[in-house]
Amino acid sequence: MKLTILFVGVFVCCLAEAQHQILASPSPLPGGADNWELVWSDEFDGPDSELDRKWQSQNGPSSHILSSRWRENVSVTNGFLRLVARKERRGGQEWTAGSIWTREMFQYGYFECRYRYAEAEGLNNSFWLMPTGQGGVSGGKLFEIDVNEGHYPNTLNSNIHNHSDTKTINGKRTHPTSPRKFTFSDKNFAREFHVHGLQWTRSALVFYLNGKEIRRVQNEFCHSPASVWLSLAVIPWAGRITDAIDGKAMEVDYVRIYRKKP
């Protein structure tokens, strides 16, 4: 009996690993792989200590969301990056989570991230681009491109923000934004990994899911080098805020950045 249980356990583990390898197959690049060269990537295969070589981390409160965010909520283990939400009072807020961004900035290309959502409502599972550093912007507007602000279980949100042209309406500061929401009845983004992609050129912003185009808009103001961001946040517009959030993690398999070949 014990041998049978052991055999079944080994079989299940091998099957899970086989499924993981199948899911890890790369999604097609726009126009074919021959048109692109890989210029930067993080496969998260090394120790957690290597993360700080490529990434910076928020360490402090976040007034615009319900969670402060800390390096301790970000870890690399078993080939995955994990951004964990915890119910703990820190930085004057009731929840903690994680947010990191690349030390290097990039201008135009194809950006993709394979990840799955934390399995709870009330969380924003984000892959996005925004200029950072001294001044933030070089000869242009301060922008934010949300490749995906994902909400459990099956919602994808792509947004384009112009943070330079702010104005005050009824006492509240706001800025121009172009949102697009997608709901997929056949998907659970917390149970499966999916590849979210952005082709960023001088003239257009094209959004992809698993290699298939889902949105295309004219690029009107996103022209400065930008960092790539990975963030988990507790927010009320992503669903109910409950104790189910505690301990849930957004898991990232890889981030890859490509440049169009001449």
Characterise this structure.
The protein has 262 residues and is mainly β. It has one domain: Jelly Rolls. It has two helices and 20 strands. The chain has helices spanning 2-23, 51-54; strands at 36-42, 55-57, 67-69, 74-77, 80-84, 86-90, 93-97, 99-102, 109-116, 123-130, 143-150, 155-162, 167-169, 172-174, 177-183, 194-200, 204-209, 212-218, 227-234, 249-260. The strands form four sheets. Strands 1, 4, 5, 9, 16, 17, 18 and 20 form an eight-stranded antiparallel β-sheet that branches. Strands 2-8-19-10-11-12-15 form a seven-stranded antiparallel β-sheet. A three-stranded mixed β-sheet has the order 3-7-6, with no helix packed on it. A hairpin with a 2-residue loop joins strand 13 (167-169) and strand 14 (172-174). The longest helix has 22 residues, at 2-23. It starts with a helix and ends with a strand. Residues 2-24 have low confidence and may be disordered.
Secondary-structure map:
Blueprint: H1 2-23, E1 36-42, H2 51-54, E2 55-57, E3 67-69, E4 74-77, E5 80-84, E6 86-90, E7 93-97, E8 99-102, E9 109-116, E10 123-130, E11 143-150, E12 155-162, E13 167-169, E14 172-174, E15 177-183, E16 194-200, E17 204-209, E18 212-218, E19 227-234, E20 249-260
Parallel strand pairs: 3-7
Antiparallel strand pairs: 1-20, 2-8, 4-5, 5-20, 6-7, 8-19, 9-16, 9-20, 10-11, 10-19, 11-12, 12-15, 13-14, 16-17, 17-18
